[in-house]
Specification:
The structure holds two protein chains of two kinds. Chain A has a domain at 7-31 and 48-230: Cytochrome C Oxidase, Chain A (Up-down Bundle), CATH 1.20.210. Chain A is 70% helix and 1% strand. Chain A has 17 helices and two strands. The model of chain A is unreliable at 505-509 and 514-524 (pLDDT under 50). By secondary structure, chain B is mainly α. Helices cover 46% and strands 5% of the residues of chain B. Chain B has eleven helices and four strands, in the order E-E-H-E-E-H-H-H-H-H-H-H-H-H-H. In chain B, a hairpin with a 2-residue loop joins strand 1 and strand 2. The mean pLDDT of chain B is 93. The chains are: A mainly alpha, B mainly alpha.
Chain lengths: 524, 293
Amino acid sequence: MTVAGRHDPFGIHGIIVLLTGLGCAFCLIRDYYTPEPGADRLSSYYDEPIKAGILLALIWALIGMFFGDWVAWLLAYPQMTFDADWSSFGRMRPIHTTGVIFGFGGNALIATSFHVMQRTCRTRLADQLTPWFVLVGYNLFCIIAVTGYLMGVTQSKEYAEPEWYADIWLVVVWVAYFALYLRTLARRREPHIYVANWYYLAFILVVAMLHIVNNLALPASLARAKSYSLFSGVQDAMVQWWYGHNAVAFFLTAGFLGMLYYYLPKRAGRPIYSYRMSIVGFWGITFFYVWVGSHHLHYTALPQWVQTLGMTFSVMLLIPSWIAAANALLTLNGAWHKVREDATLRFMMVAAVFYGLSTFEGSFLAIRPVNSLSHYTDWTIAHVHAGTLGWNSMIIFGAIYYLVPQLWKRPHMHSPALVEFHFWSAIAGTFIYVFAMWNSGITQGLMWRAYNQSGTLAYSFLDSVMAMHPYYIARAFGGLLFLIGTMVGVYNVWRTIQAAPAHLTQTEQPALPGSPQAAPLVGS
Amino acid sequence: MGLIERDPHTGHGTTGHEWNGIKELNTAVPWAVWAFLIAAFAFALTWWILMPAWPLGTTYTKGLLGADERQTVAAGLRTAAERRADWTGRIEKERFSAIRSDPALMRDVRQAGHALFGDNCAACHGVGAKGGPGFPDLTDKAWLWGGSPDAILQTLRVGVNSEHVDSRVSQMPAWGRDGMLKDDAIRNAVAYVYSLSHPGTAKEALSGDAAAGKAVFSANCSACHGASAKGNTQMGAPDLTDRFWLYGGDEASIYESVYNGRQGHMPTWDKRLTPVERKILTLYILYLGRGAR
C-alpha cells in the first residue's frame, strides 16, 4: 500500500497500516520466550481486552466530542477553520460522527459484549488472540477513517465515509468478531441464552450485512483511495438510508439494548420485569426496523409507495421500542431508592428514559406531514442528539462506571462526587443542546414555508441562517458541558485505575464458577 | 429449568433462568401493549389502503385516494401562482414609472424582492446590498452600466462577462503585468487618478507625479474612462472622479488595478429567473437605493 500509493493519501494509510502491523508483530514476538501459560488460565474470565476496549472508547470519546464541539462553534463562527483545508466543516464533521459513533460507541460495544458474553455464558472467551485482533483491527479501521477525512478521502456516504480498502478490512475484522461471539456462545455453560446476547448478535450480524451492501464499490485503481459506488441516483439514496437508518437501529439501538439489559438489572439488583416483553420487544424491533430507512427520503424522487412503507413501519416500530424502554424502567421498581443515591444507576435510568423519548420522536418525525416541516432542519439534529447524548452516551458511562472498579479490582470509583458531577453536567449539556436545536429546527422549518400577503416566500434562506446564530451558540455551549463531563469522567477512571493494586490486576483472575478449583464468582 | 421463585416486590414469578445473578420475571405482556400494537397496525393498514403502498412486480397498489406526489406539487405551484397572478400580471405589463408610483404594488415588490434578493444576490452583494471589495454597492449613486430601470434590468438579464451571447463585456487591461506601460508611468497615472477624487492632496504625499500622469492618462486611459475621467456606462468603465471605488480608492489599490487589471463577473439570470422576477428585483434594488437618488 505504502509503495503503490506513494502519490496519493493511500500511501499515508499504507504507512499507518505498516506501523500497526509492525507493532502487533513486536508484541507477539516479545512474548515468544515467556513460558506456556498454564491450563488454569482457561478457568478464569479473559478481561484484558475488555479493559483495553474501555480505555480506547474513552480516548475516542474525547476525540469525537472535541471535534463535535469544534464544528458546533464553527457553525456559529465560520472563521474558526483558520483557513486550513483539514479544518473545514466537511472534513471535521465526519471525524466527529465517526469518532463518537464508531470510536466511542463501537469500542464500548465490543468491550461490553466481551464482558456480557463471558458472564452470561459462564465461560471464557473462545480464543486468546481473536479478541485482540478484533479490537486492534477495529481501531485501525477507525484511524484509517478519520485520518482519511483529514486528507479529504471520503466516498461521501453519510456514516459510511471510509473508502474501499478500509471497508474491506472492516469486513475481515467483523467476521472474526461474529465468529468469536458464536464460538463463545457455543461453549456456554448456561442452558439458555440471555436477552443481552440476542441483541449483541443482532447488532453484529445486521451491521455486517448493511456494511457490505452499502459499500459495494469499484476502486478506480488498486493503488488509489478513490472508488465508485455500485449504485447511483435514487437507488443509491435508498441503499444509503437503508444502511444509515439501520446503523441507528442495529449499531446504536440493538447493541446498546444488549448493554442496557445486562448492566441495568445488575446494578439495580432487580430481576428483569418481564421475559415475555423482552421477546416481543426484540422481535418487534428487529422485524420493523429494517423497513424504515426510506423515511429519510420523504418527498424526494423515491417512489411514494416506498415512502409509505417506511412511514407506516416507523409508526409501528414505536410499540416494541417502548416495550423495551418500559421493561427497563419497570425493572427498576423496587430499586428507585438506589436510583436516587447511585449516579451510576441514574445514568442507566436516564438512558432508558431518553431511549423512550427519542424513539417516540423518531416515529413522529417519520410521519410524512410532520416530516415536511422537520426535514432538512435542525430538528433532526436535536432528535439524533437526544438519542446519542441522552441514550447511547448515558448507558455507556453507566456501564463504564459499573465496570471500571470491578475490572480493576477497586471497591468503588476514585471519586463518587465526580461521577455525580459528570451526571449533572451531561444531563445539563444534553438538555441545552436538544432544546436549542428543537427551537432552531422548528424556527427554520417555519421560516422556510412562511408566505407573506403577496403570496411569495417571506424569508430568504439567508434570513433563516442568521436566525440560527443564537441557537448555535447555545448548542455549542451545551456540547461543551457534555464534553467537560466526559473529561471529568476520563480523569476519574484514570485515577481509579492508577490506584488499583498492581499485583491484583497483573495476576489474579477470578476463577470461573464451575471449574475444578473454583470458588463462586461474586459480584461481577 | 431452574427454580421458579416469587419476587417479593412485584409478586410475579421468575422464569427460573439465571445468568450471573440476573433473573427474569415471567410477567405477562400487559394488555395495553397488545392494544397499542393492534392500533399501530390498524393505522398502518388504513394508510396502505388509502395511499400508494405495496409493490406488485412492475406496478404498485395505488391507494383509494389516488394520491400522486408529482401532481400534488404541480397543483400546489399552480394555486400559488394564481394567488399572485393579480399583481404579478401588472408587474409584467405596466411600465416602471407606473409601478413605482403605485404604493400597493410596491409593497408586493418589497415583500417578494426581499426573498428573491436574499436567495440570489446577497451572496455577492451582501444582505443589505452594500457590496464589498469587487462587488458593487447597489444602494449608492454609482452605476457601472447605468442606473436607469431599463439598464439594471438588462444587466440582470445578460450579466457582465458572462456566458450569455449578449453579455455586457468589460475589461481593465493589466497595464503593468502585460508590459504596456513602464512602472513610473503607472505610478504617475495613479497619482493623477488619485488626485482627481482627492483635490488638494499635497504633491509630496503621492509616490508619483500627478502632472506627468495626466499625459499618460490621456494617451492610454481616456479611451474608456473619457477625457475628463467621468467614465462610460456603455463600456462599464467607472467614473474616477467620484468617491465610489469598487476595488478600493487608496493609492495602493489603484496601483493594483492598473498594474494587474480587473475583470468583474456577474452571472446571467436569463434562464434562472423569470422576466417578472427580474423586474421585481430591478424595482427592489431601486427601492433599496432610494436614499441615494
